[in-house]
Amino acid sequence: MNYLARPHTLDEKMAARKSMQYGVGAAALALAIIALALVANPFLASTIQSGTQNKSSTQSHQAGNFLVLLTDPPNVPQGTTQLNMTYTSLSLHVTYANGSTKWVPVSDSSTVNLLALVNVSQTIGSANIPVGSTVNTIQFTISSVSAKINGQTLPVTTLSNQLVVPIKGGQVLNQTRSAALLDLTPTLVQIRATNSTGGAVSYYVLVPSATAIIKSNVGQGQENVGTKAQLDQSDVNELEHAHQTGLGNVTITSATLSTTGNKTSISVTLKNQGSSNATIFGLTLHGNFSATQSSPSTCARTSSTKSSTSSTTTASEHGHQGNQSTQNTSSHGQGQEGCNAGNGEHDHPDTIPFKVNGTSLAPLFGDGSDHEGAGAASSVTLKPGQSITLSFTGTIGLKTEGGQHGPSLVIGSISGGSYTIRLEGEGFQTAQVVAT
């Protein structure tokens, strides 16, 4: 026992006891002062609480247990080396175990080169999702797209700038780490035409086709945003199945197409014969069209029916090179020839993309024209058993002269011609229609 550490006299013992009393009293006084300060100054309390919340918020921004992976084998014209998409407001719709739902933000903004994601996935965000929850939808906005074609960077117009993509499967999350694998598979439509002075012009429209699945076999290290990994064969098979079943139950029950003068009418009736909702972002019309100049020029005003092979595409397989052309452009690229030769021929589109605006269709060429609803959300969702008729009546005009009002080239169908209608959404579906 260490006697040197203990007081030996009564005076020393009393002094030590008083010192302890003073210490306790000082601590109590300090606590009282802090309490009074918090009552008198609520801002101080909120500052302390905010600091705690900020610390918690900082911790919550670390990689979560649920990842969002992006893969994309796009269909693009030959000569395309980059297809850069900038997206914003990526979020997940979560249903928790107690039945409540919430949109959970994943990331604010990022740019990806879609051509770098053929047979590869890239982590683009993560979130903390409780086990027992279900993640059923991905939502994001496409803010801009550009393509590098033959060394030149060109602007691209999107058929729909907001995508809401259901996640197939609806599995309840029961693992420490899982992911949503989002497959965009868009088609970059190259629209070639000849302007009123005989020059060749091209416009580009990105037509999306998207689906998503839950991926359980998440590799080590994929939680880091920007990480790329090869797709497993099981992922490829599951994505192909999701594409086939996405719009596979949506049938085109009837379709009509006709052109009288400058007015074209198209009507497409759809029915969802499946057991789940199906989302459609728009449609494309493929075939051989007539083209008429709407303003004086050195060229003849009406074109002949120059050969223009339909650009109908088939389901792309993962691993297929993304820079394979989906259009026959052998008759294009010689815009001056028809004018200079005096034979009245003009290059004109063989694909016309249509946006969905309620039950209306609006042609979109990406030519800078003030198309109705251009750049806005473009989609329609059909519930099981639901039918809908999408239609357009008006002039399909391609504005090939910058700074002038109205279209320079009026596009129309040719009576008796066969055209392919391709629905674009969760996968795609096609049908044929003969123009009258």
In whole angstroms, the N-to-C terminal distance is 112 Å
Largest sheet: 12 strands, mixed
Low-confidence stretches: 1-20, 29-62, 296-345, 370-375
Mean pLDDT: 75
Beta-strand share of residues: 35-45%
What overall form do the CA principal axes indicate?
Answer: globular
SS summary, helix count:
4
> What oligomeric state best describes the polypeptide chains here?
single chain
Number of domains: 2
Summary keywords:
436 residues; alpha+beta; 2 domains; 6-stranded antiparallel beta sheet; 42% strand; globular
Plain-language structure description:
The protein is α+β, with helices and mostly antiparallel strands and 436 residues long. The chain folds into two domains: 7-60; 66-434, no CATH class. The protein has helices spanning 10-40, 42-60, 233-246, 335-341; strands spanning 66-71, 80-95, 101-113, 120-127, 134-149, 152-158, 162-168, 178-183, 187-194, 200-207, 211-215, 228-230, 250-260, 263-272, 278-286, 290-293, 351-357, 360-363, 380-382, 387-394, 396-398, 409-412, 418-425, 427-434. The strands form four sheets. Strands 1, 2, 3, 4, 5, 6, 7, 8, 9, 10, 11 and 12 form a twelve-stranded mixed β-sheet that branches. Strands 15, 17, 18, 19, 23 and 24 form a six-stranded antiparallel β-sheet that branches. Strands 13-14-20 form a three-stranded antiparallel β-sheet, with no helix packed on it. Strand 9 (187-194) and strand 10 (200-207) form a beta hairpin. Helix 1 packs across helix 2. The longest helix has 31 residues, at 10-40. The chain is globular and about 60 Å long. The N and C termini lie far apart (112 Å).
